[in-house]
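We emphasize that the prediction below concerns an isolated chain of 249 residues; any contacts that depend on oligomerization or on bound cofactors are therefore not represented. The input was used exactly as deposited, without trimming of termini.
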Amino acid sequence: MSAFKWERLYQIAMLHDVIPYAYKGINTCRSQFFMHLTEKQEATWKRANDEISSQKTDNEDDTFLRADTLTNPVLNSQLQSILDDEHSDVTTRQLLLQIIRVVRHILNEGMPIRQLLELGLILHQHGKQVDFDLLRQWIKRLRLTQMCQLEGECLILLFGFHAEDLHFVSAKQSKRTSQIAQELLEFTNTRSHDWYFSQDDDSIFVHNSNSSAMFSHVRRSGRYFRYYPTEGLTNFFASFVHSLSHIEE
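Result of the prediction step, given as a token string:
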């Protein structure tokens, strides 16, 4: 690729928080004759990868996006019951949490490429260890069927999975998946913390740092409400209350 395309790839990888995965791919293909990075670009990639790798590992920067809690009290009670069951399969529980993590990001930030990629990695590396019969029961119990269908179709569209690899996805594919994926990707340039309310140290007035991000959140909540209505409504109000928590008392 040209130097310009490498710069664009770096920007996109930073935007979607996938620098370590992209850098691993660069190292894998380093010996290829047609792979031309300038010394400056290679140093930039390495520095970004080292900085991210040295940071403390955490599932989410924003605790609101954690996958072990749902905002709907009834669904959250069901989820905690599933997670507290020590006799259930650990790998299956990990897969369920990753599915929910993707859901939380879709509802609040847009298409989470890193989280979706990590879901694909779990399926690719540990798929044979997953109890899919139990997983389907949990999905139905948490009313995640439509969201799982959307996630599965995005894995097929973006990462080359096949329907037979995803035992929680219906064989009937939606014709709108490509459009929906593009819409979600366009939302990803805003983060949930972009529209949180805040207050300056020297002022009593409350303001919003990015009003367009807030309106994007409102539109997204309405647009994808039908995929998870029981969680979508409570998630919208919970995220609004969470944004207010950033204001000084």
